[in-house]
Design brief:
alpha/beta, Peroxisomal Thiolase, Chain A, domain 1, 2 domains, four-stranded mixed sheet, 33% helix, binds acetyl coenzyme *A
Length: 328
């Protein structure tokens, strides 16, 4: 059975930066409140003509360039997103066409902030099954399109961005995918959601007037669940694959709130140096946080061949995922 490895990591964020100072002019908030409660200083925001497929295609192209692989050699594209360009066609189809991945099939995966973990789990299984050789997993979200910039409790949290992993068979023994653990707890659905625009409450003048096409959340419920479940999912995957927390070189967590990350890391007994935190410059980019954080860790030389890297995320749904890799 071929062992999958992450052979390249590409990212893309839009140029425009929205700072806490900019937000101070839009809603009743302060740089100090945002920084101390979330760890966020600024986030990138897409231009009106940039959609999720544009961000996703740029991240995918960057990953392919780094791997020296042509788009025509990609077998499958999984786009993890909650902000697709449209309900249909799938954003994966738009990306396939934009990058010229002429031989690829693909689909969108909706698991919110845990989407990227679900995506790499799926890709790893496609490679292990021998079904596909080269799978592009892209986490891309244009959260600014579904954020209410009059709601100070949510608008300070999110940003736009994309990241991609190219996953293919490892050529070296023991290096690559170790295993994943994923869960859903649908009882948390009402804690974080976009009320209208789907089949339950279709778009109407009334839904627009009632601001129902934006992210609605119970911040504290999400916070508590995220801290508890990030820790639990990490411990479960470590236990399942016989890895001790002290063997983990680096935890690359979803970036929702610096306080969530630090609380979960502390519970796992991981020191600050063993956890990647880059939420300060990007905010919560939903499915893109993990590849953005991984790219940063690689650029800073924090991941070396043979290191055990643990990815973990909790998202709307609730969705939960943790994934272990021995870096190839
Ligand atoms: N600026 C100033 N004051 C604010 C702001 C703001 N931007 N937002 C809220 N407040 C106020 C509230 O109105 C409240 O005021 P009150 O006491 O007068 O009523 C006060 O600050 C405290 O509000 P809390 O909600 O208790 O603040 P908390 O410390 O819980 O932080 C936050 C709120 C940052 C939303 C936190 O709960 C959180 O991060 N939750 C997780 C949400 C999340 O990450 N969702 C994203 C997707 S899911 C995921 O990725 C896991």
């Amino acid at each position: 059975m071929p062992l999958p490895k992450i052979s390249a990591v590409g990212t893309f964020v839009p140029d425009h930066v929205l700072t806490n100072a900019d937000l101070e002019k839009m809603v009743d908030t302060s740089d100090e409140w945002i920084l101390t409660r979330t760890g966020i200083s600024e986030r990138h925001i897409a231009e009106p003509n940039e959609a999720t497929s544009d961000l996703a295609a740029r991240a995918a192209q960057s990953a392919l360039e780094r791997a020296g692989v042509a788009a025509s050699e990609v077998d499958a594209i999984i786009v993890c997103t909650v902000t697709p360009d449209m309900f249909f066609p799938a954003t994966a189809c738009l990306v396939q066409h934009k990058i010229g991945a002429t031989k690829a099939w693909g689909f969108d995966l909706s698991a919110a902030c845990a989407g990227f973990i679900y995506g790499i789990t799926t890709a790893a299984n496609l490679v292990m099954a021998g079904t596909n050789k080269r799978v592009l997993v892209i986490g891309a979200d244009t959260m600014s399109r579904i954020i209410d910039y009059t709601d100070r409790a949510t608008c300070v949290l999110f940003g736009d961005g994309a990241g991609a992993f190219l996953i293919e068979p490892s050529t070296e023994d023991g290096l690559g995918f170790i295993g994943s653990h994923n869960e859903i707890d649908g009882s948390g659905g009402g804690s974080l959601y976009m009320p209208a625009g789907g089949s339950k409450i279709p778009s109407s003048v009334e839904t627009v007037q009632k601001r129902m096409h934006y992210v609605h959340q119970d911040g504290q419920a999400v916070f508590k669940f995220a801290v508890r479940k990030t820790q639990e999912a990490c411990l479960t995957v470590l236990d399942k694959f016989n890895v001790k927390p002290e063997q983990v070189k680096l935890l690359v967590p979803h970036q929702a709130n610096q306080r969530i990350i630090l609380a979960a890391a502390e519970r796992l007994g991981l020191s600050r140096e063993r956890v990647v935190i880059n939420i300060g410059r990007f905010g919560n980019t939903t499915a893109a946080t993990i590849p953005l954080a991984t790219r940063e860790a690689l650029d800073q030389g924090k991941i070396e061949k043979g290191d055990i890297v643990l990815f973990a995320a909790v998202g709307a749904g609730f969705t939960v995922g943790a994934s272990l890799w021995r870096w190839a």
